[in-house]
Amino acid sequence: MNWIDVGAIEDIPLRGARKIKTALGCVAIFRTGLQEVFAASNLCPHKGGPLSEGIIHGQSVTCPLHNWVFDLNSGQAQGEDASIPTFPVEVRDGRILLDGTELAKRSAA
Amino acid sequence: MKQKQKIVVIGAGMASGRVIENLVETAPDDFDITLFNAEQRGNYNRIMLSPVLSGEKTYEDIVTHDDDWYAAHGVTCRFGEHVVGIDAAQKTVTGQNGTVSYDKLIIATGSAPFIIPVPGKDLPGVITYRDLDDTNAMIEASQKGGSAVVIGGGLLGLEAAAGLAERGMSVTVVHLMGHLMERQLDEAAGYLLRRDLERRGITIRTQASTKAIIGDGRAEAVLLDTDESLPADLVVMAVGIRPETRLATDAGLEVARGIQVDAQMQTSDPDIFAVGECVEFDGNLFGLVAPLYDQAKVLSQTLMGQADAFVVKDTATKLKVTGCDLFSAGDFADGEGREDIVLRDPARGVYKRLVIEEDRLIGAVMYGDTADGNWFFQLIKDATDVEDMRETLIFGPSAQGGDTVDPLSAVAALPRDAEICGCNGICKGTIVDAIEGGAGDLGTVRATTKASASCGTCTGLVEQLLQVTLGDDFQMPTAQPVCGCCELTHEDLRRLIKSQELKSQEAVWQELGWKTRNGCHVCRPAVNYYLLADWPLEYRDDPQSRFVNERKHANIQKDGTFSVVPRMWGGITNPAELRAIADAADKYNVPTVKVTGGQRIDLLGVKGEDLPFIWADLNRAGLVSGHAYSKGLRTVKTCVGSDHCRFGTQDSTGLGIKLEQILWGSWTPHKVKLGVSGCPRNCAEATCKDIGIICVDSGYQVSVAGAAGMDLKETEPLGDAASEQEAIDLTIAFVQLYRENAKYLDRAYKWVAKVGLDWVKSQVVDDLNERARLIEAFELSQSVYRRDPWAEGAKVATSFQPLADLTLEAAE
Ligand SMILES: Cc1cc2nc3c(=O)[nH]c(=O)nc-3n(C[C@H](O)[C@H](O)[C@H](O)COP(=O)(O)OP(=O)(O)OC[C@H]3O[C@@H](n4cnc5c(N)ncnc54)[C@H](O)[C@@H]3O)c2cc1C
Ligand code: SF4
Ligand code: FES
Fold first, then answer.
1. What are the pLDDT digits (tens) for B634-687?
2. CATH superfamily of B5-111+243-303
3. Residue B780: its H or E element
C-alpha cells in the first residue's frame, strides 16, 4: 500500500464529495452521512457525468446527469450492466489517505 | 328450476361479508340470503376505523358493500336489527322485527369489547372501540378538545390514542403490563414504540391499573390503584375482546370460549355454521382478519358442497399508526435452545430481532424498519432452513446472494407462494396470474384477487408486482409513494411534516419510517424543500440535498461545464453591466454568449473551477445570480409599457422590476416565471407564464397557471387589481400558497389543476386574512433566502477546486 494524504475529512461536506485530479482522470472522494469515506472514479460510465456532483445517499451516489445509482462499496450501477472502479481509502487522524498503488497499477496496465 | 337454499346470516362483519361475496359471485342462483346486522349499516372494512378516527379517511372510503351491492345481488338486508333468538329445532331466527326460517344459519357475530368491572364503567363518556358508532362518538368528543384516557396499550388502544391525539386531544394511555403491545412486541421494540408515541405528545403509563372511573353524571377522571387520578373528558376502554357467543349459548350450541366449530366451520348443530371472531377452533381464538378470510373461504366452499378444511396459520401484526413502523410475527420469547440475532441502529430508532430454533426462524420483531417483514414471515411459515444464511439473515433478502438492493428485484425474486397480502392471504402467484390475465392496474388487481383491498399496507408491493410483470406497460398511479424509501405520497409527506412539526431531515427519516439511511436522489430533494418551505427559521436549505445545478448555482451542461446567467431586473440593463459581462466572457474564455428568452444573457461553457471567480467579477459590477438553474424565481419578463410605448396603460417594466426584487431568491416546488405586459397586446407573452399580469386602463389583470413547455396552456384569471400594490400582493400570496402546498417538481399549472383554481382564489383573492398571512409568511422566508448565492459561493472558492492534484504522483 502506498497511502497518499489527499486532504482533511472536513474539507468534504457530510453527504458530499470532492474530486481529485490524477493522471488517469478524476477520482471522486465521497463522505457519507455516517462519516464513511469512499473513493471511486469520478466518471459515470453512461455518458461521463461527474459523480462527485451527484447526490450521496446511504452508501450510494446518484449521477447528476441521468440518475444512475452506484453502490460505493462495489462500484456497481443499480439495474445496469456497468460499474465504476473503486479505490482503497482510509481516514487516519482526520486525514484522508488514498492508496496510490491501485492508481499506479491502472496507469501501468 | 332448482329450489334456492335459504341462508340466514347473523352479523354483517368482515368474515360474513367475505362468505356472502363468495356465494353470490360463484353461485348467484343457488342462495336466498337474509342478512341481519345490529349496526345500522352493512359490511365495511373495520380495520380501517383507525384512519377514520385520525381523519386520514372517511367512512365512505372504507365501505366494502354498499346498498347498491346488496340490491344487485339480491341480499335481503335487515340492518339496525338485533337478532334476539335462534330456535334450532324449528330452524328459525328471531330479530327485533320478526322471525325468519332458514335452511342453513351462519353466526358471524364477531366479538364484544371487554369491559373491566370497575365502578363508573357505565358513565356517559366511557366508550369502547369496536364499530363506526364508537369511532364517531370519539370524533365528536374530541371536537371539544380536553383530555382522553385510553385504558389498554394494545393494538386497538394505541390506534385510538394516536387518532385522538391527531385530533388535538391530550391523551394518556394506561397500560397494565410493563411495556406496550406485550403480546406482539418484546421490551426493546416496546420501548421504541413508547418513545415515538411520547414524541407526538401521548403520555404512556405502564404497570398502571385502573381502580375506578369517577365523575358526576359523566366521566371526569380515571382513578388508578395508586389513588392518582387522571383527568378524562373521554375514557376509551380497549383492554381486549371476547367472542360474542350469547345467541349460540342460548340456542344450546357447544360453546367454550368461542362457538365451537370443526374444520368445515360447522357447529354442534349440522345446519348452523359460525365464522369469524366468534368461533373457537381446536382451542384457538382469532382476532385478526387473515385467518377469518381463510374461514370464510372454507365455509363458502362447504355451503356449495365442495370439500375444504380450515387450518390455523401463523399471523403477523402491524400497527396502523402512521410513523410507528412495527412488525411482529411468530414466537419471540426467550427460551432454552433459542438463539437471538439482534440489530440496532439507535440513530435511526431501528431495532430488529430474530429468534432461531433448530436452524429455523420462529419469530421476528422489528421496529423502525419493517421493509423485510414479509420476507421473514415467509421464512417462519415455510420453516425454511436458515443455517446457510445465518450470518446475513438479519440484513434481509437483499443481503442473500446478489448484492443488489433494488426493491423491484427483491419482489421479482420472491417465490410464487410468497404471501403478499397478509389480510387476505394472497400469494404472489395469484397476483401475477391475475396481472397476466389482464388486470393491468391496482384497482383491477384488488377487484380480482382482493390483494391490498383490506388494510392496504401491501399496496406498494402489489404495484411493484405490476411493474415487474408488465414492465413499461405499467404506469405507476398518481397516489404512489414518493419513492422506494417510504410509503407516503408527497401529499401525505407534506401534511405530516406540518402536522407532526418535523423540522429536520433526521426527524422525517425517523418519524416517518424511512427505509433508507438518508433518503435517495428522489425523496431527499423533496424533503429538503418541504422542510425549508414549512420551517424557514428552524430549518436551513441543505446543499447536499440539492441537484447539482442548485448546489453549484449554475446549470451543468452535457460536457460537464456550467452556464452563468446574471439577473437583469425586469430585463433592464446598462452599459456598465454589459461591459462587465463582456469582460468576464473574455477573461474566462466563454465559448458561447446567448440572449435568453427570459430577457437576459447566458454565458455558456464555464469550467466548474472558475465559477467562484467569474461570480466575484460579476458581483463587482453589481450583477447577482439570475437563478437560471433553480426551482425558484427565474425571470420576470416585461415590455416597455407606458414609459415608451404609445399603447401602454401602466408602468409594466417598473412593476416587473418590483416583483423580481421581492420574489428573487425564494425556493419554490418548481421554477417560477412571470411576465408583465403593458396592455392586452401582450408583448411580454405574459399569458403563458406561471403568473402573468396584463395592465389595463382600470388596473391589472393577474392570471396564473400558464405553461409553455411540453404542455402549452394559457393562464387563467386569478383576480383584477385596482392598484399596483394589490397586483403585487396577489402575486406574492399566490407564490406562497404554491410554496406551501404543491408537490415538489409540480409546476404551478399542474398544482392548480389538482387543487382547483376556485380553491386558490378562495385563499388568495377572497380571504383577505389568509392573503395577509401568506404575504407575511413569504416575507419571513425571504428574510432568510433573499440573498445572492454567488456572493456566498465566491467566499468559499476553494470548495470548487479539486481536493488534491495527484497527476504527478500517480504517474510515478
Ligand atoms: C379499530 C380496529 C382495528 C383493527 N385493526 C386490525 C388490523 O390492523 N388487522 C387485522 O387483521 N385485524 C384488525 N382488527 C380486527 C378485525 O377488524 C376483526 O378481526 C374482524 O372485523 C372480525 O370480523 P367478524 O366478521 O368476525 O366480526 P365483525 O367484523 O365485528 O362483525 C360482526 C358484526 O355482527 C354484528 N352483531 C353482533 N351480534 C349481533 C346480533 N345479535 N344481531 C345482529 N348483529 C350482530 C355486529 O354489530 C358486527 O357488525 C381491528 C379491529 C378494530 C375494531
Ligand atoms: S404590451 Fe402593450 S404596452 Fe407593452 S409594448 Fe406591447 S403594445 Fe406596448
Ligand atoms: S452520465 Fe451518469 S447517468 Fe448518464
1. 999 999 999 899 999 999 999 999 999 999 999 999 999 999 999 999 999 999
2. FAD/NAD(P)-binding domain (3.50.50.60)
3. helix B768-785
The contact set of B with A (CB < 8 A) is 347, 403-406, 408-409, 516-521, 524-525, 543-548, 551-552, 556, 558, 560, 608, 799, 802-812
* Superfamily holding B549-625: Sulfite Reductase Hemoprotein;Domain 2 (3.90.480.10)
* pLDDT tens-place string over residues A17-26: 999 998 878 9
Element spanning B693, H or E: strand B691-696
Alpha-carbon distance of B259 to B246, in angstroms, equals 9
- Domain ranges for chain B: 5-111+243-303, 115-239, 490-546, 549-625, 634-787
CATH tag, B115-239: 3.50.50.60
The two most distant CA atoms of chain A are separated, in Å, by 37
Q: Please tell me which of the candidates A22, A55, A60 has its beta carbon nearest to residue B807.
A: A22
What band does B403 get if pLDDT is binned at 50, 70 and 90?
Answer: very low
CB contact under 8 A, A33 and B524: no
Quote the cell numbers at residue B554. Answer: 449554475
* Structure ipTM: 0.86
Of 2.102.10.10, 3.60.15.10, 3.30.300.20, 2.60.40.420, which CATH number belongs to A3-108?
A: 2.102.10.10
Question: What are the CA-CA distances from residue A26 to residues A31, A52, A82, B683 (Å)?
Answer: 16, 9, 18, 48
**Mean per-residue pLDDT, B230-239:** 95
Matching residue, cell 421476528:
B364
Instruction: Tell me the domain boundaries of chain A.
Output: 3-108
Quote the CA–CA distance of B721 and B77 in Å, as a whole number: 58
- Residue B406, pLDDT score: 52
pTM of the predicted model as reported, rounded to 2 decimal places: 0.53
Q: Which residues of B touch A79 (CB under 8 A)?
A: 404, 406, 408-409
Pocket flag, ligand 1, residue B190 (CB < 6 Å): no
Span from the CA of B697 to the centroid of ligand 2 (angstroms): 13
